[in-house]
Design a protein that fits this description.
The complex is a heterodimer of chains A (112) and B (114). Chain A is built from no helices and eleven strands. With 112 residues, chain A is mainly β. The chains are: A mainly beta (112), B mainly beta (114). At the A-B interface, strand 4, strand 5, strand 9 and strand 10 of A face strand 5 and strand 10 of B.
Chain lengths: 112, 114
């Protein structure tokens, strides 16, 4: 069945460190993956996405890596800042189908 | 900010009542998806609307229904509310006409059923 899971429910880092948030997915047919950031009391905010024909994509301070062999993706945040503290969700989709499948999320705590 | 708006922001209802939640999509987006997010969980797909018709549904009972209007805004209706319906309800808009299908979320409506 379809499922998206996360390895760590909480990740604590110091300001300035690099953060890595991991995610496993089980649907080998998924071909589109998205990372969202959700701050308390707000809706999920799009961070970065990647299609299955890529294994790496970079944005501003963020990088997403996709390993289709082991069905794993990760979000790397460089020079983590206190404003990065939030819950991060990975979501998977099959292009042309309607729904995003989310995991339960990883809480990132950044200490000054 | 995504440009997706939802109303109301908070709502309290009692078991058995009915509720209507509203969503305005981002300018240029023609598709609206609804999700339910229980506390401490990831969002769960309810259904999606495209061209004013339901275009896919998750594992939710028929008492969850929706509408999409010609201006692409949408409503989520829930009948016969149950305590477990207490959650954050999120809508997301996207553009199904192009290659990009990223869904952008609104701030949500927090529903409490007593």
């Amino acid at each position: 069945g379809e499922s998206v899971g996360l390895h760590l429910p909480t990740l604590s880092v110091q300001e300035g460190d690099n953060s890595i948030i991991n995610c496993a997915y089980s649907n080998s047919a998924s071909d589109y993956f998205i990372w969202y950031k959700q701050e308390s009391g707000k809706g999920p905010q799009f961070i970065i996405d990647i299609r299955s024909n890529m294994d790496k994509r970079q944005g501003q301070r963020v990088t997403v890596l996709l390993n289709k062999t082991v069905k794993h993706l990760s979000l790397q945040i460089a020079a983590t800042q206190p404003g990065d503290s939030a819950v991060y969700f990975c979501a998977e989709n099959i292009l042309g189908f309607q729904k995003l499948v989310f995991g339960t999320g990883t809480r990132l705590l950044v200490s000054p | 900010e995504t440009g997706v708006t939802q109303s109301p922001t908070h709502l309290i209802k009692t078991r058995g009542q009915q509720v209507t939640l509203r969503c305005s999509s981002q300018s240029g987006h023609n598709t609206v998806s609804w999700y339910q997010q229980a506390l401490g969980q990831g969002p769960q797909f309810i259904f999606q609307y495209y061209r004013e018709e339901e275009n896919g549904r998750g594992n939710f009972p028929p008492r969850f229904s929706g509408l999409q209007f010609p201006n692409y805004s949408s409503e989520l209706n829930v009948n016969a509310l149950e305590l477990d319906d207490s959650a954050l309800y999120l809508c997301a808009s996207s553009d199904s006409r192009g290659v990009e299908e990223t869904q952008y979320f609104g701030p949500g409506t927090r529903l409490l059923v007593l």
